[in-house]
Amino acid sequence: MGKTSIDYLFTDRQSVKPTREWADLLRSSKDKYADCRVVSFTRVKDLNSDWKHEYVQFIVEENATHDRARVYAERGNETDLDWVTFGPAETKALGSKGETDMPLPLTSLVFGRDSGDVDNRPTVLELAEILAATTVVGGGYEFYGHSCFWYAYTAYDAVKRQFGKSATEKKWRWGDIGGAGNAGIKDAIGLGWSTLFKFYYVGHAEKFKAERETNLTWFGDMRPIVDDLYLVDQVTSFLEQADNQNNFIAQMKAEGFELTEAEIQERLQASQLLAKENTKNDANWTKEFSKLKKALVERTSADANAQQYLKLYQNFEVPAEMNEVTAEGAGAFETNKALQITVGRILEEALKHQ
């Protein structure tokens, strides 16, 4: 049997389509995509991006051939809004999502552990409808609001709400450094923390990138979920280990710093203190984000259909053992509720076409 070839999904060349157009194309030939099911759906942060860009990626499997493809979806900018990227699987020879992309996985949903468990997997069209609906609800790009953080967070949570009952979730130890858009301190951490302490995460991202360039399994080495240490404790415990200190020193040298033993110890101590200082709610670089979470709450509260969206969100059952993305640190109760209303609105929009 030859390699699977399906327009706008299993293709020989990498291509890009706006999310709404992609959903329209799949919907117009829905029978062609009926046997294309989603294996996993993952939130990713690009550590090499100046603004620590976030996006989602998912693996699709064709039931008959078991061939797989990977699709990326992300919020763009003021000119080019949201798009999906599809085509051949990336390899070291063909290149990855982007030459500079340094992908750190945050959280991931897995639908069925093997190819025989296809009934519990959403179709690629169902995922396309959610991505398109997220674009509709998101409207224009907002750097501090409906940004890439917002798109990745809400699209992921919408998929989780609708299909979480038949999924398992993996949340990496550093999952809390993901943003959410308008979520106050969470977005400040999403941008600032991963910038200040990139050295702590880059090794994991490099490993994930290498896996992504060599296979289409859902996790590769199947790393275990590590204990949910507070962010400061993550950095502190990391720097207390000799091997990690050596990695930190190597990262500093890679940046052009040649340090004496005394300077190394000073840097290690300074990094631990910096970790503590920059998680305080009144840190200067968090204030702009804190103001904007109020806008999210006010906007959703003023929506005449807010309770309808919230009820729809809550009607979908998520397993108790699954880590709640909206409970993990999106902020105060009001911010949490506002994000749930937003995702409920996305789900309503997506269900119009399902």
TrEMBL record:
It comes from the Eukaryota. This is Uncharacterized protein.
